[in-house]
Please model this.
Amino acid sequence: MRKVFLFLTVIIFISCSSNRYAATNKDYKRQAKELAKEIKRYPLKGTMKDWVGTTNFNLRKPNIVVIHHTAQNSCEQTLQTFTLPRTQVSAHYVICKDGTVHHMLNDYLRAWHAGLGSWGNIRDVNSSSIGIELDNNGFEPFPDAQINSLLVLLDTLKTKYSVPQANFIGHADLAPKRKNDPNVNFPWELLAEKGFGIWHGDTSAIEVPADFNPIMALRIIGYSVEDPADAIRAFGRHFLKQDDYTEFTEGDLKILYDLMKKSE
Model:
């Protein structure tokens, strides 16, 4: 009898564990159905007497991939944060330290991950991007298993949506005043080698023109230069792996010039 009781206890525990997010999954489906109804809805009566539905359309495709660190203490904590309505924050994917990938939102839907910021001429980044959160408290290195899963996911997204190589960026790149993620331990050079984001080459032989404007170069790469100091700091974090970067050296200007030419 005791063995039967223990068996039933294990079954109940497994069932509860596997259905931990049953309620939020149900709410996800409900919200998706409401959005589907909105998409299928005809124009309101009286607004367009001669409405004609075109046959030539499809879903909008994301054009930017934004990489974050969660700044939380565990993957489970992040999953909970993204399933609480009061937090008003979400992402399309969460990747745990062990490489587990949680797909939390259909790629065609708009997640709330980027917030205020811009990249190039795009001001509403949430509406044209996919957000990927990496389980990381903001200071630690990123495990190989996590990065390997990220690379596989990025390859899938790049192939499926034809995302330009230069449009794989960090949260700090689009919002340098507010954000610093992913932290300086993130392997941007490795990603660029695989085709996700840009990186500089050998700059030893580069001669920077006398009239080179570094702030304009940052703008060409994609950074907002409304506050140049913030853009410079973001450049240093991404390409030089330095927090609190404030001033270009001669070697740094060569790197910036090379990156600008790759972005033109």
Observations:
- Residues 1-17 have pLDDT under 50 and may be disordered.
- The radius of gyration is 22 Å.
- The first strand starts at residue 64 and ends at 69.
